[in-house]
Write a structure and sequence with these properties.
The protein is α+β, with helices and mostly antiparallel strands. Strand 11 and strand 12 form a beta hairpin. The protein binds fe (ii) ion. Fe (ii) ion binds next to loops.
């Protein structure tokens, strides 16, 4: 007689008594000790008596088993070596997250039978992890997240996922990423050394991929379970993990890790680890996707505003592009940080969009403007601020509306917004110089351009009350005048 006490989550302990000298643990209906969890193989293992001793033998199950002796020694039963292990009082057998505690093993001479009492617990009751394995996983995870979350392209994320899988699960024979668009495509593939290989040469295990997407979680395939795996690896002893990746609610693709080593199939712990990595990979790729979408939404808003300006006043639109080029030259010459250059790039392009608010008579007037008209025209800087403040700029460009609107400010505070010298940011002072210089030279064909020294002198004059001398110097240097 063999007696088990079965503990399951949220349930009363269940005692199972079996009149047998041998007990098969497995998922198949004929198992005496049956578990329906997926990580249990059909014929997973057996308990049996020999020479009055109880033994446990893993029957080459897909995910293996572990025996934890009462003194803490752990015996892994996976891979090619799975000799029977003697089970004594207090020893535990672990299969996936099922824990079987053997409480008593006694010899009933009269019945010539043995009694074994076991406790079986499932679900996160006790997780026993190999310390070395844990250290490796953390080191690989650390490296992976650093790279994945700073990646600029989804492919970089996947390359790093392949490197991580290679570091964690070697020996692997091949890895693939099959993208799940309308059609399944092997988008990337890596060999057993983690190096990229030509994906077009790889045949898709379509049913394997569809199954992973259907399940919405990863699973382990062993030989015989998926024809595609056998096709690809040309061996009957292959094992593979197929894990789906999602972008928000949409399937992105399936990552497959294959191993060709006989008798060394992937186990549940491998799948859990791989799932954790693919989850991070999905999140990292989704972040790239979102950022890209936000950038595109922002850029399209800017383009649409510039198109409106171009329809209304093509001269100003051309002027804006030239001012941008000049302002960027000055910024380079002054060795401004990238953060300032980005602001200048947008502020220069948008500085005159406020002209959309100026009436046609003034905007398109051929002759010089009257004083009253000049005053109205001067309002365009404020209109630029009004318009641009309504656009949601990304954080790193949040100063663009303010800088753009200050392009007519004078150092002496006599500009339209009456902002004074040190209160005018350097970016706006650069914009002012570029704007004035472009206006001075725009009307003339290149050859008739007033001599460089004249420009210099003119700017010098203006520097007294209007423009920043250092910025003018930088412009002159940048144009090699
Ligand atoms: Fe302007």
């Amino acid at each position: 007689m063999i007696e088990f006490v079965i503990y399951r989550e949220d349930k009363q302990p269940e005692i199972k008594t079996l009149h047998s000298r041998e007990v098969i643990l497995g998922r198949s209906a004929i198992s005496e000790l049956r578990f329906t969890e997926r990580f249990v193989s059909n014929r997973h293992a057996r308990f049996f008596f020999q020479d009055k001793k109880l033994f446990y033998k893993d029957l080459m199950s897909s995910n293996g088993s572990r025996v934890i002796k009462s003194d803490g020694e752990t015996i892994h039963l996976q891979g090619p070596v799975r000799d029977p292990v003697q089970i004594e009082k207090g020893d535990k057998v672990i299969v996936g997250n099922i824990q079987i505690m053997v409480e008593t093993v006694s010899d009933d001479e009269e019945q010539l039978e043995w009694t074994m009492t076991g406790r079986i617990q499932t679900g996160g009751v006790e997780t026993i992890v190999d310390e070395e394995e844990l250290k490796t996983t953390f080191a690989v995870l650390h490296r992976f997240t650093l790279h994945a979350f700073t990646a600029k392209e989804p492919k970089e994320v996947l390359d790093n996922l392949a490197l991580a899988a290679f570091a964690l699960f070697s020996p692997v024979s091949q890895m693939e990423f099959i993208s799940a668009g309308e059609e399944l495509t092997v988008e990337y593939a890596w060999n057993g050394n983690g190096n990229p290989v030509d994906p077009s040469k790889i045949k898709i295990g379509e049913s394997v991929v569809r199954e992973a997407i259907r399940r919405k979680e990863g699973y382990i395939l062993s030989a015989g379970e998926g024809a595609a795996v056998i096709d690809l690896t040309q061996t009957s002893s292959a094992s593979a993990m197929a894990v789906p990746l999602w972008l928000d609610q949409v399937p992105w693709g399936v990552f497959i890790v294959k191993r060709q080593i006989p008798m060394n199939p992937f186990v549940m712990n491998d799948l859990r680890t791989m799932t954790m990595f693919t989850y991070h990979a999905s999140t990292a790729a989704w972040r790239i996707d979102l950022t890209r979408e936000l950038d595109e939404a922002f850029e399209s808003t800017i383009r649409s505003l510039l198109a409106a300006l171009d329809m209304r006043d093509p001269t100003t639109s051309v002027h804006s592009l030239k001012v941008q080029a000049l302002a960027m030259r000055i910024a380079d010459e002054m060795k401004l940080p990238e953060s300032s250059k980005r602001i200048i790039r947008y502020a220069s392009l948008l500085h005159d969009v406020g002209k959309l608010g100026i009436s046609d008579e003034i905007l398109n007037k051929k002759g010089p403007l009257t004083k009253e008209e000049q005053e109205k025209m001067a309002q365009h800087a404020r209109f630029t601020l009004d318009l641009l403040s309504r656009i949601k700029f990304p954080k790193y460009l949040v100063l663009v509306p303010e800088i753009a609107s200050m392009h007519h400010e004078h150092l002496d505070g006599k500009g339209p917004l009456q902002v004074k010298a040190e209160e005018i940011p350097l970016e706006a002072r650069i914009l002012a110089v570029a704007d004035v210089f472009e206006a001075l030279t725009a009307a003339r064909p290149y050859k008739e351009l007033i001599r460089a020294t004249d420009v210099h002198l003119l700017m010098d004059q203006m520097a007294k009350g209007h423009l920043d001398h250092e910025v003018i110097d930088a412009l002159v240097r940048s144009l090699s005048l």
